[in-house]
Amino acid sequence: MLQRYRATGADLPFADLRRAHGVAMEGYFWRLSDPASGRVIVALCGIHRGRAGSPWANVAIAAHPGDFIAAADLAGGTADPAGLGVLVGEGAFEAGPARVRADLGERGALDLTLHDVHAWPRRVLGGMGTGQVVPGLSQHWHPHVLGARASGTVRLGVETIDLDGFRVYAEKNWGRDGFPDRWWWGHAQHFEDAPDTCVAFAGGAVTVGPFDTTATALVVRRGDTLIRLGDPVLSPVRAEVGGGSWHLRARGPRWGVELTATADPQDAHVLPVPLPARGYSVAGALQQFAGDLHLVLRRRGRIVYAGRSPLAGLEDGGRDAVEREIERRKVTA
């Protein structure tokens, strides 16, 4: 019974949300950033189930400054239903709670170890709050590493970079159909005078059976304090996204958050979006690697922190960009 419930994408309270659920898309994402050099590295892997039930994976490494991206769709791949674990091919991608390794041949490779991890604490609900327990949602999201110290190396073509000094953020998303028709996302750390602060948000179109709406989840870690907002009744998040601007406002019984971010759409990396049933991914996620994000945090109406991060990751995505890429593939096939 529990397995069938989790196969809808839902989880019981106190569950480990990093575990695979058995849905069509299990997505894993790591973001590394270093304010001293201005570099940002992204690694991602998705394990998907095609129409015939056969598994396939999409893997990518991307970097800023520049527009570097190495990506591949690969046959096979497994995601661990007992914890955080991903394995694709013979060394193409392998990940666990403290280690991530990827090898895309001459195009790029990553060998990352996480230290001093600020993991999502054991608590009733995860990043989506009450949405966690609702079966049949089209998309789920959970940030499970809200800051860690990196060691290792990344190879971008012929250039190799030492990852000492980088900070790490990691999340998981999963769903029955892949990405929604419309979505927005963001992450930032390295705030002014607040190295122990991390913020992440994810929102977009959500469907449950015949019903559809939009929703946004917002998480802030400040030291040992974790703030989660986005409950439709207790702590709703209002999001205005478009044209290179992200503005989120949220208020709960104790905490209030206002977040304003900007980035030039022309500077976006184009990351792969998986189409699980089709068996391949398309270049359709426009992600800014170094946006400007301002955060204001209030406790019972009083400002307790206000600051800026110059290395924010930001996305404003939609089905239109994905469909354009699908049509382009048909023309060039």
From TrEMBL:
Pfam families, sorted: Tocopherol_cycl
What top-level branch of life does the organism fall under? Bacteria
Q: What is this protein called?
A: Tocopherol cyclase family protein
> From which source organism is this entry?
Paraconexibacter antarcticus
User: Which lineage do the record's taxonomy fields give for this organism?
Assistant: Bacteria, Bacillati, Actinomycetota, Thermoleophilia, Solirubrobacterales
